[in-house]
Design brief:
Layout lengths: L2 H4 L9 H24 L6 H13 L4 H18 L7 H20 L6
Catalytic activity: Fe(III)-heme b-[protein] + nitric oxide + H2O = Fe(II)-heme b-[protein] + nitrite + 2 H(+)
GO molecular function: heme binding; metal ion binding; oxidoreductase activity; oxygen binding
Subunit structure: Homodimer.
Length: about 110
């Protein structure tokens, strides 16, 4: 899926471009979670959504790719927290934030204008 990984000899966990993408997903999900808590909905700037939707469309991102990313995000958060902090409620909250962010991106997944 990521063209920058195809010809790379760098292990995935050390690839700086993959780390940058992962951090971007995490930060946007954190922002979505904060917006859900404060306003009850996720709002992302229209220009950002159009850019994200267009690039995800261009690279052929499918529902299954979003699912894998959600799984990786949730597992990463779970591993980063003390075991007694992770709960079904927390998992569902993070999942909801991610799902709403993805839904907004999917609405804009069309060729660039």
């Amino acid at each position: 899926m990521f063209s920058f990984l195809r010809d790379s000899d760098v292990p995935l966990e050390k690839n700086p471009k993959l780390k940058t993408h992962a951090m971007s997903v995490f930060v946007m999900t954190c922002e979505a979670a904060a917006q859900l808590r404060k306003a009850g909905k996720v709002t992302v700037r229209e220009t950002t959504l159009k850019r994200l939707g267009s690039s995800h469309f261009k690279y052929g991102v499918a529902d299954s790719h979003f699912e894998v990313t959600r799984f990786a995000l949730l597992e990463t958060i779970k591993e980063a927290l003390p075991a007694d902090m992770w709960s079904l409620e927390m998992k569902n909250a993070w999942s909801e934030a991610y799902n709403q962010l993805v839904a907004a991106i999917k609405q804009e997944m069309k060729p660039a204008a």
